[in-house]
Specification:
Blueprint: E1 4-6, H1 14-17, H2 20-27, E2 31-37, E3 50-55, H3 56-63, E4 78-82, H4 95-98, H5 100-103, E5 119-125, E6 134-135, E7 143-151, E8 155-162, E9 167-168, E10 200-203
Helix pairs in contact: 2-3
């Protein structure tokens, strides 16, 4: 019942095939809704980001850039894609439905019975992006984060096999927390790991 990093997993051809060019061509110009922020720490509580829509191939290429020639807010803005269903409020995220061509490249480890599978959330982000911290109050099942591929050690594609949406924390920058505002954070036990392509991070339910 503790988190663990599993090395050398067989996750399919996504660990070798998923490059900027391949992703762009595979799913083409289908439109995706993304988060755009001018700062690297995205905050879900204060909403310091905006939602924008881009063709998937354009988004992938922008996410691979450090400085942008075309942008929404600033030339060094950060991008984040979290796949959702056609109806974000009702439909469960499933890479097999939202990105069927890319899903063929992914081999999901069989750690659970098929009826226990809830969702598969496909994510892509710009380099250096930090998402808001959160915890899953109602999560009784486990989460599995698969790092499918990365390029130039800067950008990554991950697939999160998840159970429920969670509750967001007000502590935004875990590296430099405001201890005057959140004095108990100093007592928090920190777990840190570095994932490489093909690695899997297992997080037990209720952890």
């Amino acid at each position: 019942r503790k988190p663990v990093v599993l090395k050398g997993m067989e996750l399919g051809t996504c660990t070798t095939k998923w490059t900027v060019d391949y992703l762009s061509q595979a799913e083409g110009s289908k439109e995706v809704k993304i988060h755009v922020s001018v700062v690297p720490q995205m905050d879900f509580l204060s909403k310091n980001f905006v939602y924008r829509t881009l063709p998937f191939d354009v988004f992938v290429r922008r996410a691979a850039e450090v400085k942008h020639k075309e942008y929404f807010l600033s030339e060094d803005e950060k991008y984040y894609l979290r796949s959702v269903g056609e109806d974000a409020r009702k439909d469960i995220a499933d890479i097999r439905k939202q990105f069927p061509i890319l899903a063929e490249d992914v081999q999901i480890p069989e750690y659970f019975d098929k009826e226990q599978f809830f969702s598969s959330i496909f994510r892509i982000s710009s380099a250096g992006l930090q998402l808001w911290t959160h915890y899953d109050v109602a999560a009784i099942s486990s989460n599995v984060i698969m790092l499918c591929n990365c390029w130039n050690s800067r950008n990554s594609y991950s697939l999160l096999l998840k159970t429920f949406l969670g509750t967001k924390s007000e502590v935004l920058d875990v590296d430099n927390p405001d201890l005057e505002k959140y004095p108990l954070f100093v007592k928090a036990k920190r777990y840190q790991c570095f994932l490489e392509a093909g690695d899997v991070l297992f997080i037990p339910g209720k952890y």
